[in-house]
Amino acid sequence: MTRDPTGFLRQEVDQLVASELDWKLRVLDGPSLPWSVIDGKKVLMFCSNNYLGLSNHPKLKAAAIEAVRTHGAGSGSVRPIAGTMDLHVELEQRLARFKGAEASLVYQSGFATNAGLIPQLVGEGDLVISDELNHGSIIDGVRLSRAERSVYKHADTDDLARVLSEAERHAPAYRRILLITDGVFSMDGDVAPLDRIAALGADHGAMVYVDDAHGEGVLGEGGRGIVSHFHLRRDQVHVEMGTFSKAFGVVGGHISGSTALREFAFNKSRTWLLSGSHPPAVTAACIAAVDVLEQEPEHVARLWSHTRRFKQAMHDAGFNTGQSTTPITPIVVGDSGLARRMSQRLFDLGVFALPIVFPMVARDKARIRTIMNAALTDDDVGFAIDAFTRAGRDLGVV
Ligand SMILES: *Cc1c(COP(=O)(O)O)cnc(C)c1O
What we know:
The chain has helices at residues 7-18, 58-71, 86-99, 110-121, 136-144, 157-169, 194-203, 226-229, 259-268, 270-273, 280-295, 298-317, 336-349, 378-394, and strands at residues 35-38, 41-45, 103-107, 127-131, 148-152, 177-182, 207-211, 239-243, 253-257, 328-334, 351-352, 355-356, 366-371. It folds into 2 domains: 16-45 and 297-394, Alpha-Beta Complex (Aspartate Aminotransferase, domain 1), CATH 3.90.1150.10; 58-295, Type I PLP-dependent aspartate aminotransferase-like (Major domain) (Aspartate Aminotransferase, domain 2, 3-Layer(aba) Sandwich), CATH 3.40.640. By secondary structure, the protein is an alpha/beta fold. The chain has a 7-stranded mixed beta sheet with strand order 3-9-8-7-6-4-5, with helices on both faces. The longest helix has 20 residues, at 298-317. The chain has 14 helices and 13 strands. Bound molecules: pyridoxal-5'-phosphate. Pyridoxal-5'-phosphate (PLP) binds next to helix 4.
């Protein structure tokens, strides 16, 4: 009898289940709304990345439907061959204008952007300097390059200065240095000190790359993102990368910067060159999302007023909300079992927010990660505050 070559599949899954590290997939019966039906129960959505509620905005839905009528269901090709439609070009022009950049380029996803572009920007003889808490797509992009890498302590510009000085003394001299950071860190909701990072980068002649996936639609003037938030000039941040899958409510990655960056990126990124382009509905919905951000600033304003109210209430109730200064508010409870019980209790009370436990965060820093949503009403936010306070008291967290 021969051994089953796939035997490891069940074995490894069983190990994950035994150590409670497996994902149990919750299923939405219908759209992602402020009140969503999840596993048959109507609950307040408190952990989606749909910060502004745009995934169900009537303008986005209408644009997607219209694009199917005018352009079909699929694009038919990869972008460089026959898959660049007028819609793709329009989206890139609209995004560049929104960002105040010379040019933008849209990829299939944020992950595909980092995995495709980073290994082209740096290679053998180069160095990548990365924040220790950077997103997995950055880590994988760096791994695909042949560059050396140095990691600095999270958001610590003294440690970054040390790494940059060491890099300067390296022999032979590095050909290029790429300094890369998340804009908003997704587990803690803190903002990278991009002003000081960009200044240090400039002092040492490094390229500066920011992944603003959680900052777009949230930070800066009208949600223009972290470069706008810090009033940085375009030549201080060479690659501003982001995604349409979070506050923009759709899907797709993008970069903004110089025209040279755009042309370099699309000629060289393998993910962009070798993977099919977005269907018309996706692209048209993204254009509509940019429209909504430009024309309806009230969504970003409401996101922040809800955020301030919720953070203050959690603080007053005695919860530890960590270092967050953004609509991502972690409710740190410490023990991972406690975080899981708290999430279940919240679900029973009608609020959907997932626990984040080791290895995603340190063993003693398990938390419920909440993400505010502008589409909630004031009553909804009050409902969430009551549920957290009750669950926290029931479980002895506060
Ligand atoms: C979500 C996220 C990504 C990936 O974006 P997708 O468009 O969903 O692939 C990349 N970087 C960061 C920091 C993210 O939070």
